[in-house]
Design goal:
heterotrimer, A alpha+beta, B alpha+beta, C alpha+beta, B: alpha+beta, six-stranded mixed sheet, four-stranded antiparallel sheet, 5 helices, 12 strands, 26% helix, 35% strand, C: alpha+beta, five-stranded mixed sheet, 4 helices, globular
Chain lengths: 228, 254, 235
């Protein structure tokens, strides 16, 4: 037996009842107490098969295996690179995950990625808060150069990317910029003239601000056209 | 990020798209933030938010100014306003902030200190000016200086019963002021001079110059920050720009 | 002496007018403002954050650290800037009031730092602070099993009252102050302090009054959270 007490995408807050009975299971952002499921976060209720989830609307990025994120190289040891991507602990990119090319013993690692370089990399292992391994050997991973980093609310990243990348492609095409959106809310913008870069950044910030609104794609199209 | 802000500047751009001589918008002032304070103000400067409050008491004057009141300015870089500010006693940055604001108020003779005298050599008013940022998005100096002036402008004396202050009971008498100093801060990024540095620009300037200016256009206080040298001609350019922009900031005080 | 009518005309079980806003400090991970009568508290949450020295780290879960401070001009008699014994104690009990509602298992070795600052004080500052902090924690996305609601009850003269203001706290014939915080869903008490003079029976009556008054606090908190994301839920 089970009863869902909220509508799909209903705004819920911590401690709010989502479902009762044993039919459904608590998913991410929810928990079970006795025979009821409650929300742990401020977010939108979402039933995924039998999993009662809450999609959070705020909060910092929590590292997840498989995510492509952007970070800055802050340390280089003989084992590889340590990267700051906004989490209290740095990610480690071991030598063997550093490049699709073979990295010979005793190579100068700064020739690959130097202190202060920005990298788009994939998180391949998360163990507790402190052990985070990354890799540059996957598609989508690259060193980022000649551009700017901006930060957006991580919960807005899906909206900024858009369905099948539609929103970010819209902004890329209109500005001629190269843009990488990290799941951690770090966004890299490069290429194009400074004005175009600024326009791209403004457009991204506008998506972030108006993420919940109707007709967002049209709004952004209009904004890009008006400010070309 | 270092090279990016400088590179943008050399090309004639700022990270937030402002012109080099453009202040952030809006700059707003709200007074009466705390009904317990003799005067208080909240300044919203872009996304930077700073509170200033005035508390008053009576006490003995300083030996070298027996007929004048006392001004004591304090500032805290409140941890709530920036992830980099940690709890603890005021460090060099907080102390500098307090002393720069104090200098602007004091050296311009904003407050008529003689009118703060109750009995020469025995009893004078002490004005406590305290500054607390709520959100740091850059240029705390100018926002805090403006909040301080707005708070002082709205401040009234508490009631005095003989030699004792009746805290919580306010008169309608305002603190006597001579003029209203405005502080304007500029930053030198590479070879370019910009006004009102935002948070990102503060991470990478070569020189910062804060200038306190009166309505007449006289300069009463200056403070250079940053670890790079400055030419006299550059200093002159920055000071002139500060004087010009201070008039624009002053309009918000009404 | 009998306290027959409250100074501000409220009923004995009536809380002062409240107001709250979430997301007021842009740089913070989460933030809120909470107003109870003339008491105004701001709270900011930063985290998860690294913890030094490392022996403070808990390898099984995150921790929280709470810092309460009154700003110098928030009170009639200026408060000298800096921590006091009072603010240190309030920081500690506020931390204990908030912790039971949080689930920090996903954040080992880190801390969520909570800063509570009082801008204007008219009694009940720690309760306003806890109300603001609970909102700031929710705003920061910290997993919470429940909100935390707080109000002070007490005795003014011979009457049990809810949400004493400063005038009542300073009542000539004596007043007892009993700050309480509860998690509304379970009704469990997470803050309980008292100073004054009350019988156990009076305390029970006061706590029952407090629990009922919390419903109003929760309403204000829920509204503030919902208001921030108005329009987010798609139908």
């Amino acid at each position: 037996m089970g009863k869902i007490l909220v509508e799909e995408r209903q705004l819920v807050i911590p401690g709010e009842e989502l479902a009762e009975g044993i039919d459904n299971l608590p998913g991410e952002g929810a928990f079970r107490e006795d025979d009821k499921i409650y929300s742990l976060k401020v977010g939108l209720a979402h039933l995924d098969n039998r999993l009662m989830k809450v999609i959070p609307l705020g909060g910092k990025y929590l590292p997840k295996e498989g995510d492509v994120v952007i970070g800055k190289v802050v340390d280089i040891t003989m084992h590889g690179w340590r990267v700051d991507f906004g989490w209290p602990f740095f990610a480690t990119i071991m030598l063997r995950e550093g490049s699709r090319e073979f990295i010979p013993n005793g190579a100068d690692l700064t020739q690959y990625y130097d202190f202060g370089d920005y990298l788009a990399f994939k998180i391949i292992k998360v163990n507790g808060s402190k052990i985070l391994d990354g890799s540059m050997k996957v598609p989508g991973a690259k060193k980022l150069t000649n551009g700017r980093l901006i930060e957006v609310q991580p919960t807005r990243v899906p909206r900024i990317i858009g369905k099948q990348g539609s929103m970010i492609s819209l902004i890329k095409d209109a500005t001629g910029c190269f843009i990488v959106v990290g799941q951690n809310g770090y966004v890299w913008v490069s290429g194009g003239e400074p004005e175009k870069q600024l326009l791209a950044i403004r457009a991204i910030k506008l998506v972030e601000k108006e993420a919940h609104g109707e007709g967002l794609t049209d709004k952004i199209s209009k904004f890009l056209k008006e400010n070309s | 990020m270092n090279t990016e802000i400088k590179a943008l500047a050399e090309k004639g751009h700022r990270v937030d798209g402002r012109k080099f001589d453009e202040l952030r918008k809006p700059i707003k002032i709200e007074t009466g933030i705390s009904n317990k304070a003799e005067g208080s103000a909240k300044v919203t400067w872009g996304n930077t938010i700073v509170l200033a409050g005035i508390k008053m008491n009576v006490g003995t004057p300083y030996p070298d100014s027996q007929d004048q009141g006392v001004l004591i300015t304090g500032a805290e870089l409140s941890p709530m306003s920036d992830p980099k500010f940690l709890p603890g006693p005021p460090g060099p940055a907080a102390i500098e902030l307090a002393r720069v604001i104090d200098r602007g108020v004091r050296e311009s003779k904003m407050i008529d200190m003689k009118k703060l005298c109750v009995r020469e050599g025995e009893l004078v008013w002490t004005v406590f000016l305290d500054i607390y940022p709520i959100n740091n998005d850059g240029n705390l100096i100018d926002a805090a200086a403006l909040a301080a002036v707005a708070a002082l402008k709205s401040a009234v004396f508490p009631k005095l019963d003989g030699d004792k202050v009746l805290f919580g009971e306010f008169t309608k008498t305002k603190i006597p002021l001579n003029l209203l100093p405005i502080t304007c801060t500029l930053a030198k990024i590479g070879s370019k001079i910009v006004v009102d540095p935002c948070l990102e620009e503060e991470k990478d300037f070569d020189v910062r110059l804060s200038v306190a200016v009166s309505e007449k256009g006289d300069v009463h206080a200056m403070q250079k920050g940053g670890m790079v040298g400055l030419d006299i001609s550059e200093a002159d350019e920055m000071i002139k720009l500060a004087v010009k922009k201070s008039a624009e900031i002053r309009k918000v005080l009404k | 002496m009998a306290y027959t009518k409250r100074f501000d005309g409220r009923k004995f079980d009536e809380i002062r007018a409240m107001d709250a806003k979430v997301g007021v400090i842009e740089r913070a991970t989460g933030s809120a403002m909470f107003k109870m009568g003339n008491t105004i508290a701001y709270a900011a949450v930063y985290g998860p954050r690294d913890l030094f020295p490392s022996f403070l780290q808990n390898s099984t879960r995150g921790i929280i650290r709470c810092y309460y401070d009154m700003w110098s001009f928030s009170v009639t008699d200026r408060k000298r800037p800096g921590p006091t014994r009072r603010s240190t104690e309030i920081s500690k009990v506020s931390e204990a009031a908030l912790f039971p509602a949080l689930r920090l298992g996903a954040f080992p070795n880190t801390t969520f730092d909570i800063y509570i600052n009082i801008i204007q004080a008219d009694a009940g500052t720690r309760t306003a602070g806890i109300n603001a902090a609970a909102l700031a924690l929710a705003d920061a996305g910290v997993p919470m099993e429940d909100l935390v609601c707080s109000v002070a009850v007490g005795k003014v003269g011979d009457k049990i009252c809810v949400d004493l203001d400063k005038e009542e706290e300073d009542f000539e014939e004596g007043a007892t102050d009993l700050p309480v915080a509860i998690m509304p869903r379970s009704g469990k008490i997470t803050l309980l302090q008292m100073d004054g003079n009350m019988t156990p029976k009076e305390i029970k009556e006061a706590l029952t009054m407090a629990k009922k008054a919390m419903e109003k606090v929760k309403k204000v908190q829920v509204k503030a959270l919902r208001d921030k994301y108005k329009g987010e839920d798609k139908k």
